[in-house]
Amino acid sequence: MRKEDQQTIKDSVCNFKDTKIKHLYLQLQLIVDKRNKIAHDEILFNDIHKRIILAKTEEYKKFELSGNSGLNDTLGLLICIKNILPKNDFNKLIENLTYLIENYINNNSIITKEELLNEMHLPLNYEILKW
Question: pTM, whole model, 2 decimals?
Fold first, then answer.
């Protein structure tokens, strides 16, 4: 595909202004990989991708993380989804995720919220992802 066409597609799809074409490609690869894992009944909630490492965007820098944390796990996936999903839909996704986490914690005394979020590779303040 020509560079001009790639740029036009990126500009029409991405919510983040700092996304480069090659970064969008990696984000889409991560989303597809996670989707395929779901389709084949693999465990997703704490999955870390071994080959795809996302770039540290401005959205990522909101979190004080070190190493590859947030670049190839659940937080990375949420950041990728935020980049391409309409804003209201993404906010609803975060609200639904928060509801499910809270519901699970309230109905199970075997794990704390902090432990669950850590297991899911989500920071405690993941909700700041909302628009």
Answer: 0.91
